[in-house]
C-alpha cells in the first residue's frame, strides 16, 4: 500500500485507531484522527499518538477535502453520515484489519504474509491464543493481534517496523504466520483480506443493536472466507446450525472455494472430532492425508467445559493444517491454562467457588458457561443490552441457577425474561451484587459472573468489570 504523502483520515481513536495512525504516520502519510469523544475523554489514547498525527476530536469533520483514504476503527458503524458521505464522494474506505493486511505485503510480488484468522460469537480469544501458543511451541515465528486486545497495526508497527516488512522469500523473513482474532465489525470493512487459514467457531445472536437481523450478523462473519480460494482452508463448527447455514448459503457461490474441514464433539467429521472420550483427526485431500489418528484424551486437556473443548478442537485443526506436529499440539493442550475473564476460577471461600466470566457478553456465551456446571449456580448478570434474547436462557436457568443477581441497564429486561424461574434480586453495583450472591450461596455452590451484556454502562470494558469482580471477591472474609 502506497501511503507516503497521502492524506488519510482515521475514524475512531481507540486501540485500533492509535495503531493505524502511528503505523501510517511512520510510513510517511499525512494522518488525521477523528472521534466524537473529547481529548479529555480519550485520555491515554491521545497520549499514545505519534506527534505528527493531527487531531479532530469532540466531533467528526464536516468536510474531507483532499482526503485520499478513510480508515474506520471497528467500533464505528459504516452507516454514520460522515462515512457514508465519504463513500458517496468516491473516497476509498477500509478498516484497520484491511490496512494491516495491505501493509504486510511481500515485495515485489505483492502477495500477503500468511494469515490465520479466527472469528465466532464466543471463544475467539481463547482459540486464537491457543493456536498462537501451538505454533510458537512448534518453532514458528508468529505475530498475534486483532480483536484479542492488541491492535494488529500496533503489533506490526512494534514488531516488524517499516524497514522492509521483509519478503518471506528471504531466508531472514521475520514472520511465519500472522495469527489474528477478527470480529464481525472488522470483517464489515475488508476488501482484499484473504487468510490462508480461517475458522468460524460459532454464530449466536450478538450485537443485534448494530445489526438489523441475524442474517446481517452472519453475513459479516462469512466475509472471513470471501476471498479464499482452493489453496486456502476453512475450519467450521459442524455442530453449530448457524455456521452450517452460512456454509450452505455462502459456499455455493460460483468460483474458487477454500478446502473445508470441521470440528465436532457429536459426530465423526473430516477434521477433528470427539469419540469415546478422545480426540481424533483426519484430513483427507490435504497435505496431512491422515485417517482417524488419535490426538489426545479429552480429559487431558487443561481447559474444561464443552465450549473449551470446541475451542481446543478448532485451534488444533488450524495448527495441524498450518504444519504443526500432533505431538506439539497435544502438549500445548495439556499446558494451556486459559485466559483471564473467561471462566476464570477466582477463589473458594466457605466451600463456594467464585468464577469470573466477565467476557460472557452475550446470551450464547452464558449458555455455554452454564452448561459446564453440575453445581447450583448463583448467576450475576446484567449491563448494557445488545438486543439479546434472554429468554433463550430459560431452560438452563430453570435447571441450574439457584439465584439470579441483576445489575445495570438490562436488569429489568432480564428479570422480565427469567425472573419467574428462580429467586431474583437487583443489585445497585457489582459490590452489592457480590454481597447478595454470597448471602444466597452455601457450600457446594458456584457464584458466577457471566453478564450476557456489554459492560459500558458501569465499567470501562469487560476487563475492568472482571478485575473489579476479582478484587471484590478477594476481599471477602
Can you tell me about this structure?
It is a single chain. This protein has 477 residues and is α/β, with parallel strands linked by helices. It folds into three domains: 7-94, Rossmann fold (3-Layer(aba) Sandwich); 104-335, Mur-like, catalytic domain (UDP-N-acetylmuramoyl-L-alanine:D-glutamate ligase), CATH 3.40.1190.10; 344-474, Alpha-Beta Complex (Protein-Tyrosine Phosphatase, Chain A). 33% of the residues lie in helices and 21% in strands. Strands 7-8-6-9-10-11-12-13-14 form a nine-stranded mixed sheet, sandwiched between helices. The protein has a six-stranded mixed sheet with strand order 15-16-20-17-18-19, with helices on both faces. A hairpin with a 2-residue loop joins strand 12 and strand 13 (278-282). Helix 1 packs parallel to helix 7, helix 6 crosses helix 11 (306-321) and helix 6 packs across helix 12. The chain starts with 6 loop residues before the first strand and ends with a helix. Residues 162-172 have low confidence and may be disordered.
Any idea of the CATH topology of the largest domain?
A: UDP-N-acetylmuramoyl-L-alanine:D-glutamate ligase
Largest sheet: 9 strands, mixed
Pairing-aware structural class of the strands and helices? alpha/beta
**Beta strand %:** 15-25%
Through-space gap between termini: 58 Å
- Spans where pLDDT lies below 50 across 5 or more residues: 162-172
CATH architecture grouping of the largest domain = 3-Layer(aba) Sandwich
With strands numbered from the N-terminus, the spatial order across the biggest sheet is 7-8-6-9-10-11-12-13-14
CATH superfamily of the largest domain: Mur-like, catalytic domain
Q: Number of helical segments?
A: 17
Amino acid at each position: 500500500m502506497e501511503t507516503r504523502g497521502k492524506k488519510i483520515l482515521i475514524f475512531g481513536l481507540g486501540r485500533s485507531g492509535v495503531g493505524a495512525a502511528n503505523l501510517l504516520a511512520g510510513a510517511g502519510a499525512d494522518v488525521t484522527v477523528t472521534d466524537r469523544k473529547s481529548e479529555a475523554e480519550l485520555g491515554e489514547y491521545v497520549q499514545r499518538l505519534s506527534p505528527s498525527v493531527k487531531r479532530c476530536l469532540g466531533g467528526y469533520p464536516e468536510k474531507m477535502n483532499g482526503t485520499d483514504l478513510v480508515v474506520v476503527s471497528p467500533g464505528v458503524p459504516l452507516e454514520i453520515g460522515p462515512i457514508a458521505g465519504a463513500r458517496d464522494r468516491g473516497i476509498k474506505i477500509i478498516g484497520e484489519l484491511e490496512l494491516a493486511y495491505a501493509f504486510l505485503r511481500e515485495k515485489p510480488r505483492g502477495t500477503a504474509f500468511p494469515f490465520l484468522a479466527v472469528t465466532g460469537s464466543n471463544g475467539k480469544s481463547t482459540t486464537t491464543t491457543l493456536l498462537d501458543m501451538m505454533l510458537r511451541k512448534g518453532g514458528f515465528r508468529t505475530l498475534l493481534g486483532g480483536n484479542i486486545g492488541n491492535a494488529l497495526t500496533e503489533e506490526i508497527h512494534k514488531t516488524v517496523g517499516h524497514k522492509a516488512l521483509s519478503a518471506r522469500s528471504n531466508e531472514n523473513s521475520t514472520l511465519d504466520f500472522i495469527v489474528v482474532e477478527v470480529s464481525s465489525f472488522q470483517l464489515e470493512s475488508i476488501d482484499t483480506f484473504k487468510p490462508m487459514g480461517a475458522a468460524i467457531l460459532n454464530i449466536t445472536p450478538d450485537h443485534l443493536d448494530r445489526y438489523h437481523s441475524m442474517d446481517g450478523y452472519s453475513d459479516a462473519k462469512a466475509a472471513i472466507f470471501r476471498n479464499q480460494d482452493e489453496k486456502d482452508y476453512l475450519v467450521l463448527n459442524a455442530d453449530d446450525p448457524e455456521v452450517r447455514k452460512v456454509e450452505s448459503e455462502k459456499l455455493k457461490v460460483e468460483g474458487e472455494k477454500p478446502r473445508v474441514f470441521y470440528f465436532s464433539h457429536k459426530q465423526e467429521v473430516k477434521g477433528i472430532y470427539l469419540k469415546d472420550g478422545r480426540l481424533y483427526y483426519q484430513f483427507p485431500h490435504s497435505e496431512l492425508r491422515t485417517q482417524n489418528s488419535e490426538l489426545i484424551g479429552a480429559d487431558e486437556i487443561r481447559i474444561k467445559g464443552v465450549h473449551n473443548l470446541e475451542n481446543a478442537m478448532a485451534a488444533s485443526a488450524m495448527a495441524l493444517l498450518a504444519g504443526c506436529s500432533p505431538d506439539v499440539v497435544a502438549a500445548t493442550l495439556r499446558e494451556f491454562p486459559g485466559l483471564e475473564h473467561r471462566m476464570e476460577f477466582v477463589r473458594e471461600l466457605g466451600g463456594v467457588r467464585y468464577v469470573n466470566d466477565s467476557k460472557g457478553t452475550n446470551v450464547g456465551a452464558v449458555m455455554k458457561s452454564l452448561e459446564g456446571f453440575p453445581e447450583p449456580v448463583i448467576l450475576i448478570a446484567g449491563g448494557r443490552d445488545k438486543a439479546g434474547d434472554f429468554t433463550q436462557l430459560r431452560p438452563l436457568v430453570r435447571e441450574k441457577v439457584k439465584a439470579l443477581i441483576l445489575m445495570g441497564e438490562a436488569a429489568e429486561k432480564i428479570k422480565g425474561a427469567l425472573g419467574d424461574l428462580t429467586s431474583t434480586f437487583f443489585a445497585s453495583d457489582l459490590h452489592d451484587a457480590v454481597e447478595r450472591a454470597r448471602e444466597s450461596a452455601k457450600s457446594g455452590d458456584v457464584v458466577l459472573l457471566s453478564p450476557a451484556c456489554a459492560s459500558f454502562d458501569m465499567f470501562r470494558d469487560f476487563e475492568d468489570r472482571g478485575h473489579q469482580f476479582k478484587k471484590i471477591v478477594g476481599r471477602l472474609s
